[in-house]
Amino acid sequence: MAYEDGFSYFGPEFQNFSNPKVSCGRAPCGVDKSDFSFGADAALSIRTTMYQIAQLSGDSDYDGTDDNTDNCPLIANSSQSDMDLDGLGDACDKDDDGDGVLDTADAFPLDASETLDSDKDGVGDNADAFPLDASEQIDTDGDGVGNNADAFPDNLTKSVYDCVDSSFVPKLAGESTLPFEKKLVIANPASNNNQQTFLRFVNPWADSIQVQLYAIDDVGTAGGPPISFTLSAQESKQMTAQDLENGNASKGILAPLCNGEGKWQITARSSKEIQIMGLIRTPDGFLTGLTDVVPVESGSNIVYFANPSSTREQQTFLRIVNNDSAKGTVTISAIDNRGVKAAETVTFELAANSSKQMTAQDLENGNNAKGLNGKLGDGSGKWRLTIESSLDLSTQSLIRTPDGFLTNMSAIVTPNRNGSSTVSFLNPASNTAQRSFIRLINSSNESASVTISAIDDAGQIAPNGDISLTIGAGESLEFSANDLEQGDAELKLLGSLGEGSGRWRLNITSEPKIKVMSYVLTPTGFLTNMSEVSDASSSLIKVWMFNPGSNKNQASKLRVINNGSSTAKVTISGVDDAGNSGPGTDLIFNLPYASVTEITATELENGSSEKGLTGGIGDGRGKWRLTVTSDEPITVQSLLETPAGFITNLSTSAK
């Protein structure tokens, strides 16, 4: 029953004909508004409209199936699936597979044959030949050694590869069934303890990942069966060349590489994409990154930094890797800092899958013993090299110092979308222990007009304004921080930056476009390439390696730059090597427009009220990988410093 439209205000009005003891607005239900104080009474008369009431629906959950036949009448389940055929639909069945174990306690709630996964490898204990080993699931030949670690998975009498067994043909990475691939073009052998190979593998996923490592030595020979291991969910592992060549059961390496000739190139295949970093560790623990390779342009590998043979304290040597399974000819041409071409080219043959190293002395003077034909001769300043071949090549430009340090000078600043280049790290001229330089390379056949603008760490524009200069066709120029701050007309600089607060970041524009590098030189002659950042400017940045606060001798530092138009709210979270999130809370701070902050590992873990760093991720196990988010675009660099003043850039992983 309902009131008719236009029902008079002055007539008796009942809000509800149910229970008079229940309040309906300000009156008891069933009382007309004119005398509600006297209690409920009957309506003398009321104008009503009659409605026909439809029969109540027989589909309580509105899933299209009548309650009389619905196997879950109160929970919508249009499919009416009933996996265990017990008459109770899966949507409301607390034991979907009918195995007697409730879904909440069942690792496989839709598989009646499995209930447990003790090693959390995604394979149930009943089907898993190794239910307590996440790296193994199958043992085809039944010899007690899982297929991943078994060099002969179909041979009951043999499981370990014998390096002198000529009947065994090692497999190459192309034969792997794992779909994802990343490559490191250099790894020193285990015999080199002064420059120890140190590899880092990171699983960023919530499930386990199977990994296979395929190694090829300098003559193109595979190093035995692939090394197989598992990365648990979110786990990271470090491995040395000694682990790879000698085995390390604690890291899951049971079938190591055989001895190779020279250095290794290592290809990782994995079931999902992982992150890989290749590094060198010196006896005192200092790390330098060897992941980057030189850029490829129009099919050629381009080396933008190669010292001349006269620079013996920072000796350039190239590593050129043939990624093809065929041999071919390689040609190296060179242009010096003045834009003058070398008198000759250098050519050589490169066997299938092989690698070749050569020094600046080899290139300038020739070296028949290494199979090099021709020589560059002398040039002026550094070289820019073009390496051409029909082969698929990877090249690194490395610097070796007499005291055993090795550094990678392959990378250049990645240009911005508009073609400009941003140098994110430039020490001030006052820092003489870590002298900063930039290298500007004009590869075009015409002069380039260049403008350098600068902002300091406080977000202030350089007090003296921009610098302008012209670089001749094919020329390369280098400037120190002192040159930029003070100006130097003899070096073609028009203008100067003046002094700023903290470090600088530079924006370099030109027409035509030029290439840019940034590096640091210590008094002992150690060079560090500072050109790279963790990723392009973004609101989410991943840092794949960061030492814990307990490591004071190789202290990690995060450099965060606000590239946005307003103050940025920045949040940093961390996951340790065991795959666990930091036990503390995310580190949160505000970063003013255009400014920079640098955060030590101790501050990351504990916070800093002095710097406005709230929270702290706490103390984890091993190293960290970090996620940096912001409501403004930011740039991040992961740096490593020693008490002696060495600094290195560990911002990148293998592409």
Core attributes:
655 residues, mainly beta, Hypothetical Protein Tm1070, Chain: A, 8-stranded antiparallel β-sheet, 37 strands
How would you characterize the overall build of this protein?
Helices cover 4% and strands 34% of the residues. The chain has 655 residues and is mostly beta strands. Among the domains are: 173-289, TM1070-like (Hypothetical Protein Tm1070, Chain: A), CATH 2.60.290; 296-408, Hypothetical Protein Tm1070, Chain: A; 421-529, TM1070-like (Hypothetical Protein Tm1070, Chain: A, Sandwich); 538-649, TM1070-like (Hypothetical Protein Tm1070, Chain: A). Strands 30, 31, 32, 33, 34, 35, 36 and 37 form an 8-stranded antiparallel sheet that branches. Strands 13-14-19-16-17 form a 5-stranded antiparallel sheet, with no helix packed on it. A hairpin with a 5-residue loop joins strand 11 (275-281) and strand 12 (287-289). Residues 1-22 and 33-56 have low confidence and may be disordered.
Quick structural overview:
With 655 residues, this protein is mainly β. The chain contains four helices and 37 strands.
Helix/sheet category: mainly beta
Helix content, binned percent = under 10%
Uncertain runs with pLDDT below 50, 5 residues or more? 1-22, 33-56
Name the CATH superfamily classification of the domain at 173-289: TM1070-like
